[in-house]
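Margin note: ligand = iron/sulfur cluster.
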Amino acid sequence: MTAFVSNTAPGNSSFSKTFYDSLLEVVDGEHLRTCLQCGTCSGVCPFGYLMEFPPGRMISYLRADIFDRVMDSESVWMCVSCYACTQVCPSKIPLTTGLMTRAKEELLLAGNIPKELQSALENSQRYGNPLGESPRKRANWAKGLETEVAIMGKVKRPVDILWFVGDYPSYHPRVQLASRALVKLLDVLDIDFGILGPEENSDADSQRLAGERGLFEMLAEKNGQALSKYQFNEIITTDPHAYNALRNEYPKLGISYPVRHYTQFLADRLDQLQPLLTQEIKAKVTFHDPCYLGRANGVYDEPRTLLEAIPGIKLVEMQHNRSTSLCCGGGGGGMWLDGFQWEKAHVRLSEWRVREAISVDADVLAVACPYESPRFEDAAKMVQGAGQLRVKDIAELLVDAMED
Amino acid sequence: MNIVVLIKLVPDLVEELTIDDSGTDLERDWLRLIINEFDDHALEQGILLKEQSEGQVTVVAPDTEGVDDVLYAAAARGADKLIKLLGEFEQGVNSHALARASASVVQELQPDLVLTGVQAHNDLDGSVGPLLAEFLGMPYVGYISGVTVGDKKSIARKEYPGGLIAEMEISLPAVLGIQAAEEPPRYVAISKVRQAMKTATIEEQEIIELDSSGGPTIGRMFLPEATERATMIEGDEEEVAAKLVEIFQELGLL
Ligand code: SF4
Ligand code: SF4
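Resulting structure:
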């Protein structure tokens, strides 16, 4: 069944047509032809209700050859690349990586982007991280720890595990706490690991999903070059976005290594870890599935396995869990569009999530993505009744459960 | 409209600055350079003018580390011609030397309008704009945030302290020191910058001698030192002024 009708005649060079063709080139892009206009995507989209053009309507405008009207609106910048639409589409159309990301790319090429996003992209280009921090200080978070963290360029020896730390785990003061917790875990498990330190650049996956493909390629190449200098058996990442990039996107650029998220890596070593978890944590804990661990990559069980291994913890599920998890609002450039999206929506997705956590009486909201601790902690300050909710990275909870 | 924009790169303050062994200059080995923010606005203003009234934008920059990338990015934003001044710029030059060196090159381009940032944080001997205007024999107005151009004249908005703005007519050719472009500097996608790297050419102009005369000699460069004590002068304006005069006289400054 081919539902697409308008402007398929060769030689028609309208923007809609060229754009449509570019979508067919995305992996599984040809599924676009079978859009049923059911609107499920727009309904599930966390910001769909206030987008002038949610994904389903974008497709109808595309078919009607009036896509330029979509491009004239700012609607697409509300997309947080959460994969919810892609997950539910009965025609299996790659909406997140195709339609939404390509639309952002076109807006960006036309120089039409929100200012907030511009500075994150400029920082990424200039300093290799969206926060605009000194690249030379990328490993400063690891200074003064009991365990000395091996920086590959300094130790000049092969390691078993190359830990790709990521931007926020390296620079954000709140997220650094989780990085330090992970050092402790790797240390007690006797893992021979190293980091790239100043040679590491942003994985740039969120920049890619915010439409800056060229920047993504540039930073991926730099990471690829750095990685190729050293010997290691496997990469682990703190950040699900980095995991997604290394697993699904870097190989397309010829940068291919075995990679796991730290929750997968630790869950695999549970035999070793379990006996060390001796301290009871009497708490009701709920887990927020990060979009790029869950929906995008199907990792749902390992984080839960780790949490359940902690004595005393009672794991409860929020209303939206696993594949229906709610986005924290940080993906696809959302991390750098807070002001813009607030102006449009006057709600924060992170607050919605925090409300769900307190509605199941959780004491702790457990996370496994570096965007989340700061986002949810900020949200908890805004949501009534969330004053007691603690936001903890799984790595932090595991360390809390170990004897000092 | 033939527009020339003079830009320079300055130390990026994201890295800590250290002073070298001579004690009179920054340690340059570790310096990271970035386009002077005001020059970035001057460039944007130049491109906006070109878009409004046709014309050509030429960007002139002294050769320092990373300048090629900045020039290609300027081309991607809409600059037509890129000129790099070759010479001993890497160790830093003062504004007098840079203005003299640029003047000869800018003169040859026969511009209708020369734009440059109103200041830079490393201008130890005054900003480049007025010096350049002097060497070119052109009028200069600084602290500009908004320019329109017409036949042989330009209307510029100049900012004064206290939120005052004056609109003034300036006969062209002239040099303007830009405080802020009418729109913030635009973003160009990396793919466009990479494209520009393939298509744009950077013309090189040799600067044989750098003449820094007219500027001060730096005796000592140091981090701010905490002062021992401060005296608070109390009273109304008259009393404070009288007290100040007294102090200055005591110190032999008046
Ligand atoms: S869910 Fe899929 S089939 Fe339905 S409107 Fe959206 S894109 Fe089309
Ligand atoms: S990826 Fe998420 S935010 Fe973007 S359109 Fe789909 S459902 Fe909406």
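Chain B touches chain A at residues 14-16, 34, 184, 186-194 (CB under 8 Å).
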